[in-house]
Amino acid sequence: MSKQNELVQFSRGASGGGSKNLIINGGMTVAQRGTSAVTATANFPVDRFRVEHSTDGAFTAQQSTDVPSGEGFVNSIKYQTTTADLSLAASQYFYTRQIIEGFNSAHLMFGSSSAKTLTLSFWVKSSLTGTFGGSVWNNAFNRSYPYSYTIDAANTWEKKTITFTGDTTGTWLTTNGRGINVGWGLGLGSDYSGTAGAWSASGLLSVTGATSLISTLNATWYLTGVQLEVNDNATDFEHKTFSQELQACQRYFCRTYQYGTGTGTATSNACVSTSLSVAQAYASAGNWDLPVTMRTAPTVTVYSTVSGTSGKLAADGTDGNGNATFISEDRCFFYRANDSTGTATNVFLRAQATASAEL
Q1: H or E stretch including 83?
Q2: In degrees, to the nearest 5, what angle opens at C-alpha 236 toward C-alphas 233 and 241?
Q3: Cβ(215)–Cβ(84) below 8 Å
Q4: Domain topology for 3-251
């Protein structure tokens, strides 16, 4: 299959043209960055699901193997409060979201009288009960649809379904930018909370009075089986193969490392390399042909195969300054810049790298 055909199948096709689910990695199976807990703002516990956080509390978010029984899932995301924020300020927030690329949501015709009705379904489990909230919103954050759902039993997997009409007004991107944001609130201040079940001409992330995970120490919340489809009702979750989900995710983030090897690991396995027969001050380490066509020319970070240090490239056992250039959606070029060590004759230059084109 050509790379151009891969783009059609795994970018546009993964969210409408050959798949009913607009969500990528809804079963939480792909975690290229690793499965251990992350706490940084705007980080990814699994691919395509971003954590956004600005509170006085703290949390962990990580891939988990706790899943609903008999549904075919093997992974979920687990969020846990490690420092509680008992009183959220109006402008504070804690939520997770997936951003759907405009190319993948254009067929929904949001912003027109032909906007389609959608159904969002997902499996959720929490140590807390009560009303929870989330939202769907546009790139400009001036059109949003807050929704609510109820967790009836603590520490029990429950399936939730929200059906809503598409927005007939507002501006919704149909390019490779942010088409539609789909989010789940885990603690929102009053600035971001509103009434459920209707489109709002403002940026809202949850519903007024929703349960706040970040306000309870050690509280947990799990998510899996996320599906967004053009339908008046929820249908069975569309299980895809791991390779299909991985390729769809790689349009937004990919690495040279073997899957399961942590970024920054000192290893030459799967690296980009080349050999030099003569000494060079500026030495090529070869081209990296990206596994799929990415959403846009990515931000590339080079890592040494010897020390694992970012911004470095190894010449046999010695680190030098490593860089990427001629970066496009399909490939880039690694080189070792002029530095105090230079390069000797008959050496191998090796590099690992990550490429990010996240929305």
Answers
A1: strand 76-83
A2: 140
A3: yes
A4: Jelly Rolls (2.60.120)
Q: Would you give the DSSP letter of residue 13?
A: G
Q: Which of 200, 190, 186 is nearest to 91 (CA)?
A: 190
- What token pair was written down for 214? 């970040």
Q: What are the structure tokens assigned to 135, written together? A: 């939202």
Q: How far is CA 59 from CA 41, 78, 82, 91, 122, in A?
A: 10, 10, 5, 18, 22
- From residue 159, alpha-carbon distances to 93, 123, 134, 167, 171 in Å are 25, 4, 15, 25, 31
Per-residue pLDDT of 27-48, as tens digits, reads 999 999 998 888 665 699 999 9
Confirm whether pTM is higher than 0.85.
yes
Distances in whole angstroms, Cα of residue 187 to Cα of each of 42, 171, 205 = 15, 27, 10
Give the SS3 label for residue 303.
strand
Read off the amino acid at residue 70: G
List, for residues 282-314, the tens digit of each pLDDT value: 556 789 999 999 999 999 999 999 999 999 988
The size of the chain, in residues, is 359
Would 3-251 and 272-356 be classified into the same CATH topology?
no
What DSSP string describes 158-222?
EEEEEEEPPPSSS----SSSEEEEEEEEEEE-GGGEE-TTS-BSS---EETT---GGGSTT-EEE
- Give the CATH number of domain 272-356; options: 2.60.40, 3.30.70, 1.20.120, 1.10.3470: 2.60.40
Q: Could you tell me what percentage of the chain is helix, strand and coil, using 3-state DSSP and rounding each to the nearest 5?
A: 10, 40, 50
Domain edges within the chain: 3-251, 272-356
